[in-house]
Amino acid sequence: MAPPADFSTPDFLKAGIDADFLRDFQALAQQSWDAWLRQQPVSTGVGGSPSFAAAPNAAAGNEVLDRTLAGLKSYFEWMQGVTAGAAGVPGADWQQQVQQLFGGAQQPFAQAFQHIDGAGMEGFAGKWHSWLQGMQPAEAMASGPTPAFGQDREQQMQRQALAAAMLESMQASARYQALIQRANTQGMQKLQDKLAEHAEPGRQIESLKALYDLWVDAAEEAYAEIALTDEFREAYGAMANCQMRVRSLQQQQTEQLCQQWGLPTRREMDTLGERLQQVRREARASRASAAVDHSKEIADLRREMAELRRQLAGAEAKPVSTSRTATKKAPAKAVGKTSRLAVKKAAAAKPEASKKTTPAGRSAATATRKPAGKRAAAARKSSAARTPAPRKRK
Amino acid sequence: MYTPLRIDPTRALADINTFQRKLAAGMGHLRNMREPDYANTPRELVYSEDKLKVWHFTGTTPTAKTPLLIVYALVNTVWMTDLQADRSMVRNLLEQGEDVYLIDWGYPDGADRWLTLDDYINGYLDRCVDAVRQRHDLDAINLLGICQGGAFSLCYAALHRDKVKNLITMVTPVDFQTPDNMLSHWCRDLDVDLFVDTMGNIPAGLMNYVYLTLKPVRLNQQKYIGMVDILDDPVELENFLRMERWIFDSPDQAGEAFRQFIKDFYQGNKLIKGTLEIGGQRVDLGKVTQPVLNIFAEQDHLVPPDASRALGEHVGSNDYTQLAFKGGHIGIYVSGRAQREVPPAISAWLRNRD
């Protein structure tokens, strides 16, 4: 399309397309869209028609698809709106036009922020609100806490606390939503500022997608600025804390119902879990501690055993007088008795020889099975097998 | 005077028509697509405990002398490191000759609600490190901590200095209260005790929702509008769906560990203040004296670059290297640039210290 000679009004408002054609096209597009949607497994709203709300109660499997379709639907409707505006408002100021395109009920920003204040919480709170209303008169909900009496006093007080918490939560959400709306308004201003930078040949926005992307940049910038303020931080914290307070009170009531019905409660499960985890920690610490103690003891014993074997091996190769010395030095329990017995037996059998050749090892029988050198080597091998290999070091 | 808008109505109608056509045709492709797999680089299970698993990646012969253990965050799954064959940090590290292990924390349930940071860091992580050390008969191994896993690795390296030879942190928050940290800003007024006492474990859906609201229009809407353009491209669509799978297939957070992480790291900023205690032991970043490579993403909206850069001021190591990557928190693993730049940089740095 050739550039128009007069740029005082947006050229897309000077469309040469017939308005009736546009309406027909839009109707056709809408029918096509609706027909296509009927084939998709989206969650349904009232009357079975496709619901593009964020659908917090939707089946988990459809949640992402629902959200995706909601975004696409918003974008589609926005494109239609822009195109309709192209034929419908000739001569309008471009800034006003932009306000209409992004500021109305169909503006895509609203969809992006739908249910931002209650991921999955709204449906949950809504159910409880209905339940609560069924449990007590509406005026009690509205009039705030009043003194309670009698046998049901505690339950009444809890219900009042829950009602008050819900009210507080709604107020916190409203405060948060007001900030989101402020971000939306500031986003519009930023969009206009960004568009103004494009008001020169070669930089003009020529497609719906380019206009949408520019709007996204502006909206995100404005949102980020608001989201980093102290006011937003406080509102965000208050909203989250209020929702948790509501949920906590709801859980309290559920606990009581479960107790009445003889069902195990979450609190009981939590207590068990906490105790179990503590026992696991203690058991592990105990095992680790025992492992350290035993390893030290085992290492000491191994060292002692190795020393004894060395002494034994040395004694085999030396005269009796030396082996006696070794026998005396060795611990009495394991080595002394055996060696003494061995010495006696050997002495009884060969009195003269025993004085010279009987080793002071574990037993005479052992001592005679292998030559001294081989026995010492075997002892070293056995010791090495039980001792962990030294770690490689880099 | 020029107007900024120069939208041709004929073209606008064509855009709408194209959008609808692509959507209608693409949804047919979408219905016929199966759940995309991750890269599934060959691996063997070498250690498991409760829901945790330590995987050893196989199929190549490592040339590195010291194995590398990847410590991922508790949020999201570890498969971001091995997303698809041509976007796999793990696979690229293997190709560089590294011997790669990975801790898969699993999906905590109610039984894990009481796990603390002490249980995770001095318990699970320590035993995983021991398992790898024993396999290689080594005193110390290399650690690569990612995001929250990087914060864990820093704590671990400070508390178990003899077991960590070299430490790599990726997109790791160290100063949790930089002015541009939106997540930190939001949770400053959160009553985390009430939150955890009420919720128990923190649902993954809630965590994801918070992440989406960091950039609500871009992540809730613009991304899906962009998807329409690739609906007729099976390969691109599969990549898109794989990423969606990774984003939304997330584990819940163990309540007690979450409580402590928010209180001590985000609200208290104790890691850089030197007042953090894990299992009764003070975590002093000055005691992290091992060589440290700190990699961060310049366009990271979850962990702002300054939150990571702060490590240089607090770490005790005399061998500290910093690497800025041109990309975002996820792009640092999956973008084409990341494949070319990040694993080779990690490997080269390690080789000089192997």
Q: What do these coordinates show?
A:
The complex is a heterodimer of chains A (394) and B (354). By secondary structure, chain A is mainly α. Chain A folds into 3 domains: 1-112, no CATH class; 115-138 and 151-263, no CATH class; 307-386, no CATH class. Helix content of chain A is 73%, strand content 0%. Residues 1-17, 41-61, 118-125 and 322-394 of chain A have low confidence and may be disordered. By secondary structure, chain B is α/β, with parallel strands linked by helices. Chain B has 2 domains: 12-37 and 203-251, no CATH class; 43-184 and 257-351, Alpha/Beta hydrolase fold, catalytic domain (Rossmann fold), CATH 3.40.50.1820. Chain B has 15 helices and 10 strands. Chain B has helices at 9-32, 89-95, 117-136, 148-159, 182-187, 192-199, 204-212, 216-228, 234-248, 255-267, 270-273, 305-309, 311-314, 331-334, 336-351; strands at 43-49, 52-57, 68-71, 100-104, 141-146, 164-170, 277-278, 281-282, 292-297, 320-325. In chain B, the strands form 2 sheets. An 8-stranded mixed beta sheet of chain B has the order 1-2-4-3-5-6-9-10, with helices on both faces. Chain B is globular, with a radius of gyration of 22 Å. At the A-B interface, helix 1, helix 2, helix 3, helix 4 and helix 8 of A face helix 1, helix 5, helix 6, helix 7 and helix 8 of B.
